[in-house]
Design a protein that fits this description.
By secondary structure, the chain is an alpha/beta fold. 28% of the residues lie in helices and 24% in strands. The strands form three sheets. It has a six-stranded mixed β-sheet, covered by helices on one side. Strands 7-8 form a two-stranded antiparallel ribbon. The chain has a two-stranded parallel ribbon with strand order 9-10. α6 packs parallel to α7. The chain is globular, with a radius of gyration of 19 Å. The N and C termini lie far apart (53 Å).
Length: 232
């Protein structure tokens, strides 16, 4: 037996939950996905929000305060909300303040240096803020949180550094399978990129990529089933 179980639950699994009730649940973002399964965006969002369905006021919901799709839909959840943000200071929650990641709760304030992170990009600061909020809500000591933040090398296929050849750095982000994930990855690079994209067409709207690609991409290489619709 263990004291805590940490699980990732997909929308497909959340569709059929009965008594599943996480004491601490986190929702990092809501972005259109799986239109090959869900007739409308709202049906997918409703499934994702199911992670909070069985929580009550003794539980904690860690939510992204910078995501308007989330903030517009969590008014009815019963759990105590612990938000996180990279764009503004929060009276309670986890937020970025200069070079520090701050967790502010009624019990006090904790600060973790952003510079300890080995993984690049503002999207990974968001991930770290959510992880801090979850871990501390579960009772993990601050020293252990800081140690893991400084050790974590990132995950395969998630803006994973591959190698540099002739001054060009190659990254594998093949887990970025929806528009929101691609936008987050693009924003994590300060320099122009060549984007290789495509694969399975899940029926989502690719138009939100246009402005970001105009700003960040030197070129776009399209492949797979989705290439023709992406090109349009």
């Amino acid at each position: 037996p263990c004291d805590w179980g940490v699980v990732e639950v997909s929308s497909f699994q959340l569709e059929s939950i009965g008594r599943f009730r996480p004491r601490v649940a986190a929702l990092l973002n809501l972005t259109e996905d799986h239109r090959d399964r869900y007739a409308a965006k709202e049906a997918y969002f409703e499934a994702k929000l199911g992670v909070f369905r069985n929580q009550d006021s003794s539980d904690i919901a860690v939510v992204n305060a910078d995501d308007p799709e989330i903030t517009a839909r969590i008014g009815s959840i019963r759990a105590r909300r612990l938000p996180f943000s990279v764009s503004r200071t929060l009276t309670e929650g986890a937020f970025l303040s200069g070079g520090e990641m701050v967790l502010r709760r009624p019990s006090g304030e904790e600060r973790y240096p952003r510079g300890v992170l080995k993984i690049p990009g503002l999207q990974n600061v968001e991930n770290a803020l959510a992880a801090i909020a979850v871990a501390r809500s579960m009772g993990v000591p601050p020293t252990a949180v800081l140690a893991e933040l400084s050790r974590f090398p990132g995950l395969p296929h998630r803006v994973e550094f591959v190698r540099s050849v002739a001054g060009v750095s190659y990254y594998n982000d093949s887990k970025g399978t929806n528009v929101g994930a691609v936008l987050a990855a693009l924003d994590g690079f300060p320099e122009p990129v060549v984007l290789i994209a495509g694969g399975k067409d899940k029926g989502v709207d690719f138009r939100p990529l246009r402005a970001a690609l105009g700003r960040k991409a030197r070129a776009v290489v399209l492949l797979g089933e989705a290439r023709d619709r992406m090109a349009r």
